[in-house]
């Protein structure tokens, strides 16, 4: 087995590989460079906890940045909404109801409300529906005829908005309840009078709506504060009611909710850094079932020349018969009527017509079908690995939670150690979880790489292969090798050696992923093509994913093998026979 000293030296070796003259990277550095946001140096380590944070249960899954965004719970949202209403009410000398209507109309933008109001108050009142005085004076009447049900009722059975148009309470209630049950459009409710644009505010809802509808209206009003706000979005995790207020322009859109769900604030898909949102959107669209069904049909079936229904060939004979009521008989190869086939066309299992067309280059449909098949196979290759890393990440999260809730205390007792000495185990699992996420999205990145950019593709596959191989070694060590220390009957003498080894593997894996992420965020543009040619030598028998051409003796390798992504490399945790 390679010693732990070699593990630590390998970590330094990896840094030498990427910090030398052959590459255009800065020395050292964190996982993400300084071009992304002003969240401070504490946030550059791609979301994992530092050593000092491991004892904090709230930071076990993901360390939350201290700047750049704020997670808002329901009470926080209500407080901010009330503060904005009070601010507008005070500055413009309006009632709370009028301030609420104004803010809702201008998407809760306080500054825009102030600017528009002081620019042209009359125009704003007219567009929003805030009347300074009623347009209908009914103060002297003792009874009215409702404009909806046409009943003559006493004045105390009537209500009106700021315009003064009187309608009976029963009709108002029906009008309001119907609007609320129709959805958030009730927040823009106007007077029932067809020619009137007076706004119906929360005071009318509180006065006339039943309790159930009042609660719905309050929820619509609360949610509008987030949904109409350009700087806030709801957490997309199922069942989470939190929102995230983001400092637009920060650059790094990855945020972590209080529910521990990490997502991209820009596109609300799960966190996918270092892959950009456009690539993720195209990848998720590609993953849609309908799109891939079409691809499968294209390369596994042909359409009947008569009825145009797709047909899958399930026997060896070229004589095809479409299902009733069509029942058309045709040749699978040339798609012409079978009645024209026989000895003249080459026999039962052959078709000279098809072969002749192939020689002339006229079989465009076949070429398109072959291209669709190749495209589908490429997609399948990347999708399987994308999905596999997603499954591995979910399993790693389960293992992390089980380790924290069940095995850590047991390990302390069995190995006669302290929790502080077991930080390396938690750190390793956190590293695995995060690296699985990054690795998953690199397959979406790889699928989107243009095929003609061979140099970029080779360098990407090299970095991805190195990172993946390092991650597999770390995952195996944390998952398999740790188990014997947990289930042991007593303390084992080599437990300290295991902790040193696990720490070294964690450091090596982190370095690999730092290099991978840095390269992808730079669009692989800073890679020197000469360096790439050195990495993947044409004379090397290895594939781009397994660049063994250096034979472990390249610059900075110090005579040791660097991690590989394929073949049968000598891993740092292999046991000598």
Automatic annotation (TrEMBL):
Domain RING-type residue range list: 142-355, 146-190
Pfam families the UniProt entry points to: IBR, IBR_1, UBA_ARI1
Compositionally biased intervals (Low complexity): 537-550
EC number: 2.3.2.31
Compositionally skewed regions (Acidic residues) per UniProt: 1-56
Names of the cofactor(s): Zn(2+)
Gene Ontology BP term (one): protein ubiquitination
Pathway: Protein modification; protein ubiquitination
Keyword set, alphabetical order: Metal-binding, Repeat, Transferase, Ubl conjugation pathway, Zinc, Zinc-finger
MF terms in GO: ubiquitin protein ligase activity; zinc ion binding
Family annotation (PANTHER family): RBR FAMILY RING FINGER AND IBR DOMAIN-CONTAINING
Known function: Might act as an E3 ubiquitin-protein ligase, or as part of E3 complex, which accepts ubiquitin from specific E2 ubiquitin-conjugating enzymes and then transfers it to substrates.
Annotated protein name in UniProt: RBR-type E3 ubiquitin transferase
